[in-house]
Amino acid sequence: MSESIHPAVCSAQPSQRADKNPDAPLFEGAYKERFDHILSRYPNKRAALLPVLNMAQELRGWLSPATITRVAELLELTPDYVRSVASFYTMFQLRPVGRHLIQVCIGIGCDLCGAEEVVEDLLEATGTRIGETSRDGKYTVVEVECLGACGFPTVVQVNDKVYENVKPEDVEGLMKELD
Amino acid sequence: MAYPHAHPREARVLSKHFGEKDAIPIDGWIERGGYKALDKALAASPDDITQIVKDSGLRGRGGAGFPTGLKWSFMPKDGGKPNYLACNADESEPGTFKDREIMRWTPHQLIEGCIISSYAIRAKHAYIYIRGEFVDVVRILNQAVVEAYERGYLGKNIKGSGYDLDLTVHLGAGAYIAGEETGLLNSLEGRRAEPRIKPPFPAQRGAFGMPTTVNNVETLAAVPHIVLNGADWYRQWGTSKSPGTKLFSCCGHLQRPGNYEVPLDFNLRDLVFDLCGGPPKGRQLLALIPGGSSVPIMTADEIDCDVSYEGIEAAGSMLGSGGLIAMDDSTCMVRAVRRMVEFYAHESCGQCTNCREGTSWLAKILRRIERGQGREEDLPLLLDIGANMAGKTICPLSDSAAVPVVSAIQKFGREFEAHIQDGRCTAVN
Amino acid sequence: MNETSPVLNVTIDGIQVSVPKGATILEAAERVGVVIPRYCYHPGLSAPAVCRMCLVEVDGAPKPLPSCVQQVQDGMVVHTASAEARKARRAAVEFLLVNHPLDCPICDAAGQCELQDYAFETGQLRTRNIEPKAVLGRDKLTPDILYFADRCVLCTRCVRFMDEIAQEPVLQVIQRGHKGYIDTMTDELFEHPFSMNIVDVCPVGALVNEDFLFKPRAWDLDQTPSICPGCSQGCNVLLGTKENRVLRAKPRPNNEVNSYWMCDHGRQALVNWGAGDRIEVPMIRESGRLAPTDWPQALAALSRTLEARPAGARAIVSAGASNESLYIARKLADKVGFKGGVFRVETGPEAGLPGFPKLRLRAERAPNVRGAELLGFRRSADVLEAIRGHKGVLIVLEDALIDAPEDFGVELEMFIYVGTHMSPAARRADIILPSTTFAEAEGSFTNVEGRVQRFAQALHPPGLARPLWLTGSTALAGLGAGAVYRTAAAAFDALVGEFGEFQGLSYAKLGLGGASVAEAESSAANVS
Predict the structure, then answer these.
(1) Architecture of the domain spanning B21-234
(2) Chains that touch A (3 or more CB pairs under 8 A)
(3) Which residue, of B108, C81, C227, C280, is most buried by count of CB atoms within 10 Å of its CB?
(4) 3-state helix, strand, coil in chain A (%, to 5)
């Protein structure tokens, strides 16, 4: 991501992408600019924590202890505190995940309409169990609570892309798209 | 007929332009009358705007139904501290997906609402706290915010009025409880989204310790229409206690799921059977949840009521967020309730004992019953656990988790008993 | 009552009480002796109101209210034992037990566990829960503290202690909901000079002191109020003793000195305090050899020594001795002609507690420096040098003189050693009087701020060891110099009459909380 982002929306950039690099620097170039923009929108540094963790995850794919420590340093917080906050939110990955993080909604709306079968088919297609990353590092399939699109079941989110009305028969096509 | 299943019986105020791609960019929105209300608002005084909203009877659409104008009037006017507006776009109540569609199709409707409301409460900075999972919607909203800045609707001296407002979009990271207003404030401040003890209320001590108003997306989106057309115009719909229109997110076993906007005196049965087309062919409606998974389940024969706050309450449930979940006769009630309770167990912040332990205990018992290892004494036990969870915690999540269990056992006790006796679900056919 | 009055009236379980504005229901209840059960509330910490144990019924309130944060309003009528309040409390305990391992037989907290107490009190002898329990395991947090996550009730007292009082927020709640537990960022152990307070504040057996683990059961311990002798702060403590040994010390609340806290140094110093080979009988030198004797013989020898001696008496005392014993040491020296006395103080690094700045681990690692000074003894880095050349009587009180040269005391006319432990130098004394540690006799210390505080007897002294205030005063009384002080109170009250700095104090007045010499001075000044 090289283009400049308006300061008003720097705190709201989707964080799960396929092109993650666990060793990416925190933060340089356009990301440093985004970091400064984020800080400019709040009366204190602590408030920038969620957006900055998001940005770190966008770059590195997950929040390693080293990442957490670095973010803590940048925001003048303790690493213990940052870990506590990060572990509260389900979208922060505290373990590495596959290149494609496949999240299947099993909320009541999707469950009533057959989400279970979609999950089963995705696990079969990726050869994994829930939460496990495939051997080639490509896929991690997880069940997630309501994604807030209950009228369009089953909802599947792959990294930062949402698929609505996914039926078991759509799984094959979805997997092709990811390859 | 447009957006997926528009219906002539709807009263489409907020959702009028759902489905129109051209309404998303700012030019398209202005062509459709956008930002006229803002011009009108900036020419009036903040207190006049608050008065119009008070007169309109608009009530918070996030679930609690608190009168919006009254909430605004709690904000200090002396300017001693900065006031904030926090827009609650952390829509996470299972069965609810209306705010998502407002932001997806009409982001400028929300932004205009945010500006007018900020002006009314004398805020210089507004935050839209949007749930982290809304990855596609946030791109649309972000684009719209940038456009609004570029056109001078945000920033310094908005449209020459002398009023300054910054707006920041803030992404959540996966926590239902961040949708509770004080949980939202903690999350916005970079903390765990644990709800705060009230008092102090947000209008006294909110974001960053400053006076703050927290309003839902749908509430704020209604504000420009009310300001532009007046309180009486808004009151042409609904009842005296529940004026206006409301979006209903309809999901589950329906022929035409989706969002429908109806006046608040609309009939609930008509909404389900006429607008949504009722359950799939060959199926009977078994149960209905009218306001998101936190409100009591209704039986099919309880739903002949109007959808106002008081109408649904009289029928034994609550309007809540307007997330309508329909279940037909193929539904295993034990499973459905278990699934809803698991949600709350997953989302409990864990501060309060009753909620942290109660939600997971309920889920374990329901899982066991579903597996066919239920015991007769489980039903009174579930009811008593539910009673011990209700009204005893800092925030209402604990109550919410107990509601589906208690109401389902009260109304669908036979399904539970049969499941326990037979060791499996006999309802599914 | 008019509106400006700061006093509010509230009825707790039918008892009327007036409290200042801002008081919580829980505080108001304590004023009338009603203790509302609580887990997350701790008087020394902020109140998050999360355990939901202290819910009470309030007339007119739609639901039970958390008494730890709910402020009293005028005319409020509170029921802490109504059916609703009891049901709420019962529910909270039941919920806490749902995932609790119920491993009381192997839990260190058994017998001093608030979860156990309230489970019993609410009559929950059987569980309604048949589901498998969550297993979270255990972790080591500091070199001395273990965390049993399965027993944890997530009251967050430990988190708040580290955050608010230690102000090093290393402990945090990790995860959320029923998966939550307490942890630090890394697997490395953290160290903090006041870390052990997190064990004290834990209302259950989640945080335990590894050093104490599996040693005694809580109910086997005798508890005695005392003062920590680890430094000159004078933390108020409770000594836990069993089989005549100190096995642990816990802070005893005193808002003037240590609040609810104490340091790890003091606790560790206190365990087995005074251990080692003790002097158990008096000894006197006869024809060049030390021989054991009884008290009448020893005191007779002492009396003979106290007859006029032109070279006078010098003393080496200890800042670990009580005011009362120091006073008698002084009187013994006076009887001969006091030529000055010294004491030395071991020092070590200081450590502070930012959330309660009054409390510090003081550099001076002795409890009664101020008392020794007020009684006319002088602090000296080299006590041996200070008495060099003295040819008269030397009285040594509780300083083992471990650095003394082999020929120590050859010039002395008479060498009286009063102590607990033997040493090569002590063996050169003419009279040896076995004395007691602070744990073995009552008495008082004067802390760094001039606060005089009493400690009670927690242990039996070994053999014939007795405090100097008893033995020394007996010898003096035989010579017509004062009475026999059979209690520390008598000795202290006599001391007050002789040393103006202590004016206005009395042993009874010190009570359990102590009183300050400075205060005594100013109040005496006010009277005159």
Answers:
(1) 3-Layer(aba) Sandwich (3.40)
(2) B, C
(3) C227
(4) 45, 10, 45
For C516, the 3-state DSSP assignment is strand
Single-letter residue type at B131: R
Closest CA to A106 of C175, B365, B338: B338
Span A100-178: which CATH code? 3.40.30.10
ipTM: 0.96
Cβ contact B97–A151 (<8 Å) = yes
| CA C131 to each of CA B406, C48, C120: distance values in angstroms, whole numbers, following the listed order | 20, 29, 22
User: What CATH code would you report for B245-328?
Assistant: 3.10.20.600
State whether B251 and A14 contact (CB < 8 Å). no
Sheet strands (E) in C228-308: 236-242, 245-251, 283-286, 289-292
Q: In terms of domains, do C145 and C25 share one?
A: no
Claim to verify: residue C194 and residue C247 sit in the same structural domain: yes
Nearest-by-Cβ selection for B327 from A89, A112, A153: A112
Number of neighbouring beta carbons within 10 Å of residue A70: 19
Q: Which CATH superfamily is domain A7-88 in?
A: NADH-quinone oxidoreductase subunit E (1.10.10.1590)
> pLDDT by residue (tens digit) across B17-43?
999 999 999 999 999 999 999 999 999
Nearest to B192 among A15, A85, A113 (CB): A85
The size of the A-B interface in CB pairs under 8 A is 176
Cβ-based neighbours of B301, under 8 Å, separated by 6 or more: none
Asked if B319 and B249 count as a contact pair (C-beta separation under 8 A), the reply is no
Distances (CA, A) of C214 to C137, C138, C189, C493: 18, 16, 22, 43
In this complex, which chains have at least 3 CB pairs below 8 Å with chain C? A, B
Q: Which residues of A touch B347 (CB under 8 A)?
A: 145
